[in-house]
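Is this the right way to post structure tokens for a design question? Let me know if I should format differently. Anyway, here goes:
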């Protein structure tokens, strides 16, 4: 841990020890995650209402925009804190600025989802990123060995924020152009670490990063558990429907199974090589988004059963099955294909195909839940056989 003997307001910010024992998430990081999940919940709620209302493509595209901004700000801060958190007052204050930006984003996601209004989401995002510029400049000052890398981070983030702010002054344009401009901005954001890390890799702590990602996975799985609660509440408050009980039970089973598949004995990130870290770190964006989308899918199913949705029951089943399939495939992409051998290596892709087929075969949500339980059992059994 950083020393407490120096000035508590402004301490040096040298690189943290990559092999520091017993490195765990701090209370400030846990509070940061809680604020971020508020924004994730707002994005998931927007996706739920768009899909239930029959606006699938529009809802998915806008959900991707909102989720990328939330996840990217979370990821940049998380990896920086793993390398440089000195827990002084200035670090805490800058972290709180980032939290404030996240709350601005959370409050304005409805504007984005309903009207494609980017003004307040961009303002919240830029607040988060400007605080990161200050953190990287501090790291550049206190860590001469990686000064070039830190300055590239600060400069790169600043340039991309100028791009986002410029979008605020562009006159009305069509939706297609808005999406294209967003993709360009996202590519620029993703390029900054790739360029900066090649000048000197930041000393992030491998076990700390795995814990941070695991904690966000747990928090995001709360969206699935919340959907189970919504289904039960609908069954109690409205006229009783056995289908709502099925939705609640399926949500619990699927949520527990997703948790079991993520938290196994296998290490997610067994090396600190830059290509592997980038794939693992970036790949989790789809994994986190898919978890939130599964929760939104269950909420859509509640609307379908209670007569408040413009889509069919089959469409509701696929609102759960499709993001769940993405979850399985990404978990295979970033972890299983590296850490497993033999038949166990292909369990997740195989059961992803099975889960996708279940609604079309007439087995519905229960079939999807059964496929996921099968994935948990088959992966555990195959792994033991190949141990």
């Amino acid at each position: 841990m950083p020393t407490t003997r120096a000035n508590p307001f402004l301490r040096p910010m040298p690189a943290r020890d990559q092999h520091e024992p017993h490195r765990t998430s701090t209370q400030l990081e846990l509070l940061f995650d809680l604020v971020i999940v508020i924004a994730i919940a707002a994005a998931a709620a927007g996706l739920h209402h768009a899909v239930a209302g029959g606006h699938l493509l529009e809802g998915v595209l806008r959900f991707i925009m909102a989720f990328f901004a939330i996840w990217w700000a979370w990821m940049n801060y998380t990896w920086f804190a793993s390398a440089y958190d000195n827990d002084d007052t200035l670090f805490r204050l800058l972290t709180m600025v980032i939290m404030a930006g996240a709350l601005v984003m959370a409050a304005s996601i409805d504007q984005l989802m309903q009207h494609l209004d980017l003004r307040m989401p961009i303002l919240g995002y830029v607040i988060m990123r400007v605080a990161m510029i200050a953190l990287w400049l501090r790291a550049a000052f206190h860590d001469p060995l990686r000064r070039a890398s830190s300055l590239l981070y600060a400069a790169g983030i600043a340039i991309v924020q100028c791009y986002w702010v410029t979008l605020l002054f562009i006159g009305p344009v069509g939706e297609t152009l808005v999406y294209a401009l967003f993709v360009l901005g996202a590519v620029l954001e993703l390029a900054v670490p790739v360029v900066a890390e090649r000048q000197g890799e930041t000393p992030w702590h491998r076990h700390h990063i795995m814990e941070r990602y695991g904690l966000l996975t747990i928090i995001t799985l709360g969206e699935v558990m919340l959907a189970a609660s919504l289904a039960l509440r609908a069954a109690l408050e409205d006229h009783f429907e056995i289908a709502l009980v099925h939705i609640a039970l399926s949500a619990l089973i699927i949520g527990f199974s997703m948790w079991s598949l993520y938290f196994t004995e296998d290490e997610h990130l067994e090396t600190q090589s830059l290509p592997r870290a980038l794939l693992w770190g970036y790949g989790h964006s789809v994994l986190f988004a898919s978890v939130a989308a599964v929760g939104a899918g269950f909420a859509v199913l509640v609307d379908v059963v209670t007569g408040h949705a413009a889509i069919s029951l089959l469409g509701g089943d696929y609102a759960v099955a499709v993001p769940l399939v993405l979850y399985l495939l990404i978990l295979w992409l970033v972890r299983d294909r590296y850490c497993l051998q033999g038949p166990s290596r292909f369990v997740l892709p195989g059961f992803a195909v099975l889960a996708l087929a279940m609604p079309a075969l007439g087995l519905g949500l229960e079939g999807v839940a059964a496929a996921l339980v099968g994935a948990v059992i088959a992966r555990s059994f195959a792994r033991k056989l190949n141990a």
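Format looks fine. Someone answered above. Worth noting: The chain has two domains: 27-197, 206-385. The chain has a mean pLDDT of 91.
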